[in-house]
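dumping this here so i dont lose it
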């Protein structure tokens, strides 16, 4: 009898839809030191959606998920992703701020977007 391959594939696909893998200098829980706070609010939006940060400096962002669904925070241009942030969870992401406009996004909900403005 053949194994239920289709079911196994479906399970893998479903898992991929509901989680993302950490990438880059990221962590779970609150920041140890100074950090720029970002909230994911109940409207599934990043607040603030525009971050004005000093280009070339290393900055830690602290992302708090105040929504009831899981989200993540990804800056694809610098290969950064917090991985899944569960409801009520907090994650950090540390990056060297690029000059100019750099988009960030929740990879689960592409409509959840914002930008880092490095100047
Ligand atoms: Cu999201």
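and the seq i came up w/
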């Amino acid at each position: 009898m053949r194994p239920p391959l289709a079911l196994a594939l479906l399970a893998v696909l479903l898992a991929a839809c509901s989680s993302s893998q950490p990438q880059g200098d990221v962590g779970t829980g609150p920041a140890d030191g100074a950090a720029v706070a970002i909230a994911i609010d109940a409207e599934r939006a990043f607040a603030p959606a525009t971050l004005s940060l000093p280009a070339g400096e290393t900055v830690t962002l602290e992302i708090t998920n105040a929504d009831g669904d899981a989200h993540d925070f990804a800056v694809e241009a610098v290969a950064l992703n917090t991985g899944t942030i569960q409801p009520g969870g907090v994650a950090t992401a540390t990056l060297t701020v690029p000059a100019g406009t750099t988009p960030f996004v929740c990879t689960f909900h592409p409509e959840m977007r914002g930008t880092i403005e490095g100047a």
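Residues 20-118 form a domain with the Immunoglobulin-like fold (CATH 2.60.40.420).
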